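To close the section, here is one more complete example, presented without commentary so you can practise reading it yourself. The ligand is pyridoxal-5'-phosphate.
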Amino acid sequence: MNLEEMSKHFIHVYNRNIIFTKGEDVYLYDKNGEKYLDMGAGIAVSALGYSNEKYKQGLKDQIDKLIHTSNLYFNEPSIKAAEYITKASGLDKVFFTNSGTEAIEGAIKLARKYAYLKNKQSKGEIIAMNHSFHGRSMGALSVTGTKHYREPFEPLIGGVSFAEYNNIESVKSLITDDTCAIILETLQGEGGIYPASEEFITGIRKLCDDNDILMILDEIQCGMGRTGKMFTYQYYNIMPDILTTAKALGCGVPVGAFIAKTDIAKAMCPGDHGTTYGGNPLATAAVCKVFEIFKEEHILECVNKTSPYLVEKLNSLKDRYGSIVKDVRGMGLMQGMELNIKAADVVAKALERHLILISAGSNIIRFVPPLIIKKEHIDTMYSILDDILQDVQKYA
Ligand SMILES: *Cc1c(COP(=O)(O)O)cnc(C)c1O
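Output:
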């Protein structure tokens, strides 16, 4: 099948040219059986790689029992999944969604409802960050800090203003009596892998406490162990009021969640929110398996053991190719390499060499491999990237 045939029946919003048909360990295989090392994990989703038998068996067992009932009834896997996720986050109440963007929608609605109950005249203003990414639905897009994503779809939801990430004064200057929430990624992903400073995160927490504003942390990408703790905010000794998660939460089965403290969650009452599929038995069976496997197979320890090696190798590329590599930054197994050239060119060259990389923004390579990645895989990646950057430098 050629590109034209593959693309024929799709709305063209992705530029792609390859079909993967099989996954194994940390590798994907194309239709011809060619093997590719995966440093993208389906955009930070497939944390357990592609061959976890406990995970797969858990899903198969659940398919045989029950796939869907709707939220008109309880189901067993969701009860267990809710317990796991509240324990892991330290928050109290969860709502399961089908995606990250829906988790953001829910978080925004909860913040608005909370503000409305305090003051029916509240304008429900929200402060979001430049370079942020929170999803593609109208609500999530409204708090996404990249203008070219937003502009063609305006008018979006009102009352959103944008502050500079890692600049607490810029956040402070946007606060009004009507501010109900501040939303941010604990570590910015799509926008270019920008970690937050401790000062910034704790500063936001204090601003929220002082002004009775809710702190919404989006850990859809940086959560679920990716940075070496279950959630990245756990590095900062603070708690968000509302947390969103998705991507690796189901390790490939579409599921997300927003989670809140009891006092805030109780602003929502029957009728306020809902979903047909969200938290269905199949999706939450996946969530349960993910939490169980994380514990049994010491996934956080894997991240903490391997990530310093990844950082070391990326920094060594930066030292070797200082004219191309501007910066290396990130936390754990969520790293970015900022280039002086287009990231898409390097991504394409890597794919030719059977290395799957993804970009973030136009000039940043994003490294978000399966969390079970080993040093030998990083070595393979390093030598391919080394070749590519050497070529680029030669012909620059
Ligand atoms: C991917 C992502 C989203 C959107 O999640 P979808 O599942 O694609 O809807 C939201 N926030 C962050 C930080 C993300 O990385």
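Once you have examined the tokens, check your reading against these statements. The CA atoms of residues 37 and 380 lie 8 Å apart. The domain at 3-52+298-395 is CATH 3.90.1150.10 (Aspartate Aminotransferase, domain 1).
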